[in-house]
Structure formats: C-alpha cells, structure tokens
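Weekly modeling sync, notes
Attendees: S.R. (lead), two postdocs, one rotation student

Agenda item 3: backlog of single-chain predictions. S.R. asked that every request posted to the team notebook include the full sequence so nobody has to chase files. The rotation student volunteered to paste the first one in as an example of the format we agreed on. Action items at the bottom.

Example entry:
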Amino acid sequence: QFQLAESGGGSVQAGGSLRLSCAASGYTPYCMAWFRQAPGKEREWVATIDSAGSGYADSVKGRFTISKDNAKNSLYLQMNSLKPEDTAMYYCASRRTTYCAGTYDGLFGYWGQGTQVTVSS
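Predicted structure, as returned to the notebook:
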C-alpha cells in the first residue's frame, strides 16, 4: 500500500527557515508535489518535482526549494525567508506518473496527512 508521511513542520518567526520532509512507502514515486492550505482558504499548489525538473508557485519562487532523494524515497521542501502568509498546513502529494503534467490538486491521487507550518511576524 502506497503511503506518504510528512514531518518537519513547526513554528518560526518571519525570516526564518524550515525543512519539510515526506517519506514515501510502497513504491518510488517520480511525480511529487507540495500543496498547502491556510484556514479559510482553498488548497494551493506550492511546488512539484518530476523526471523533467521542478516548478514553483510565484509566491514561493526564490525562497523555497523542492528536492527528492529516490534512494530514500523521500521528498523535501526547504523553506527560507518565511513570511506570515506562508502559514498553512502543508501536504505532500504524488501521482503514479513519470511527469506531473499539471498542478491541479485533483491530478494527485496520493496525499499525506499534512504538517503545520506557522510563521509569526
């Protein structure tokens, strides 16, 4: 059974950094992504990585870095220069394709339970 489990969330002051991790079990995914959802808001795409490379939402470009270690079946999100507006529940997601081919959350069939990130001003 394929499962995703996030870790690494927490509370940090604005300008600080956090590194999120997502451990995959069951198979080695090639298309993986991070999404986030703030209270009262819709879930939004943050970043994706697949066999073609990586992509970022404009709101995090230059501050966040997505990476993947296939040997460890793990996905990471390094978040620097955090802002209060980055506060959200962060979710790891995957689809069983070589390429993600989109950022719509409905494309992703596998989700972790989420990890909370809180950035205070």
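Discussion: group reviewed the output briefly. The mean pLDDT is 95.
Action items: rotation student to repeat for the remaining queue; S.R. to check formatting next week.
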